[in-house]
Amino acid sequence: MQLSPYISVYDFLLLSIVLFAIGLFGMLRRKNILMLFLSSEIMLNAINIALVAVGVAFNDMGGQMFALFIIALAASEVAVGLGLVLLWYRKHKSLDIDTLCTMKG
Q1: Concatenated DSSP letters for the chain?
Q2: pTM to 2 decimals?
Q3: What confidence tens digit (pLDDT) does each residue in 31-53 have?
Q4: What are residue 96's DSSP bridge partners?
Q5: Which of 12, 45, 46, 91 could hold 19 in an S-S bridge, CB 3.0 to 4.6 Å?
Q6: Selection from 49, 7, 27, 34 nearest residue 88 by Cα
Q7: How far is Cα 81 from Cα 62, in angstroms, rounded to an integer?
């Protein structure tokens, strides 16, 4: 089933796979906490693209509803995560992920 005469659902799914792979690569390779947040946002947006494309292709609103929930989840992740990152940076003057090993209770 086609979304438009020029772009099919498979094109959107391919874009989603590429974006998810970029985000996963960033999660595995980066040492900066902010880059980890950015990579997780890229991965969540890739999932949103896939859900909306499949939802439109099958004339189902479920994909759009799940995408809205993921957007809300991403917003709460940014709000809480960036607050924690700012506190961490004020205390340790570094955003390197290796310094998190010193968080022993």
Answers
A1: -BSSSS-BHHHHHHHHHHHHHHHHHHHHH--BHHHHHHHHHHHHHHHHHHHHHHHHHTT-THHHHHHHHHHHHHHHHHHHHHHHHHHHHHHHS--BGGGGGG---
A2: 0.82
A3: 888 888 899 999 999 999 999 99
A4: 32
A5: 46
A6: 34
A7: 28
